[in-house]
Every structure is written in structure tokens, then in C-alpha cells.
Specification:
disordered C terminus, two-stranded antiparallel ribbon, alpha+beta, 4 helices
Length: 166
């Protein structure tokens, strides 16, 4: 059973979202996710742990809390957020990240194939285009919906975008 962070710095918390919230959001957004509650719990735990590794604004609101949020000294749009506040984008981002992790679990980037170039019907033969992984195919991380949710709350907004030199 998940222990949900409610903004009070719950020791031992392992998720911001419940299984029911995740299932409802997955239905709303058409995400392909498991239907078994225990598998969803694992995804939510994994995504919360991954979020702990991100560099967020401010600092944890209490030293005993298990997860990165709630936080103190977080400024969004010129306003300081309350210490016991977990923004909706943090919860939504966790759920998006969990769905992204599941997508990568069932279809890892390294196993993806290119377009079919040639297909022979008798004695089935299929030739795929080569997929060159030049750093563009990644596991759940940058340039995903979860990162868009997190952008305002990271220590440096847009840290995951590649630098462009003129």
C-alpha cells in the first residue's frame, strides 16, 4: 500500500498520487498503463524516487520527509509558495513520469525498429530501416510531458534542453 505525501512531510511517503488518481489520469489522457494496482504502485514508487534525484528549487520543508516535496523557498511567477504546499503539477508530473516509465518498460528505446523498407510474403522476410541512436532515443526523462510539468519548480528552468550556439 502506498504512503501518500499530503504536504506535511510524511516520513516514509512513497508517492504523491494514489492508484485511483493515476488510473483516472491515465484514462483521461489515454496512457497505456497496467490495470493491476500492485503494478501501478510500483510505477508510482519508481517515479517518486526518480523525482527525488531532480534538482528542485528551495529545500525540503522538513528534514524527516521521505520525498522531495513539500519544499520551502520555492518561487513561481514571482510568488513564494507556502511550505506545506505540493503543486498540482508535481503530482501530475509524477503520474506522467510513471506512464513514461511504463512505456519504456514495454518498448525500450534500444529495441525500437525503424520503418519497414522491404517485406516479402512467402517465407516471411522483413527488413527494417536502421535506427541511429545518436542520443535522441532516451528512457523516461528529458523532453517528456513529466518534465513539462516540473519545469517551473526545477532549480534551473529548462535545464534539460540542449544548448544552441549561434
Amino acid at each position: 500500500m502506498l504512503t501518500i505525501e499530503d504536504g506535511t512531510g510524511v516520513p516514509g511517503a512513497d508517492s504523491y498520487a494514489t492508484v485511483d488518481e493515476f488510473q483516472a489520469r491515465a484514462d483521461d489522457y489515454g496512457w497505456d498503463v497496467p490495470t493491476q494496482g500492485d503494478m501501478i504502485e510500483r510505477l508510482l514508487r519508481r517515479s517518486a524516487e526518480a523525482m527525488n534525484a531532480l534538482r528542485w528549487q528551495g529545500c525540503r520543508a522538513s528534514p524527516g520527509q521521505a520525498l522531495a516535496w513539500p519544499r520551502r523557498d520555492v518561487v513561481v511567477d514571482g510568488e513564494i509558495l507556502p511550505d506545506a504546499h505540493i503543486p498540482a503539477a508535481i503530482k501530475y508530473g509524477q503520474m506522467a513520469l510513471a506512464a513514461e516509465m511504463h512505456a519504456d518498460d514495454i518498448n525500450p528505446p534500444e529495441s525500437r525498429r525503424g520503418a519497414v523498407l522491404r517485406e516479402k510474403v512467402d517465407v516471411l522476410e522483413v527488413q527494417y530501416a536502421e535506427v541511429k541512436n545518436e542520443g535522441r532515443l532516451m528512457r523516461a526523462a528529458p523532453n517528456r510531458p513529466s518534465q513539462v510539468q516540473f519545469a517551473d519548480y526545477l532549480a534551473r528552468r529548462g535545464w534539460y534542453l540542449p544548448a544552441v550556439r549561434a
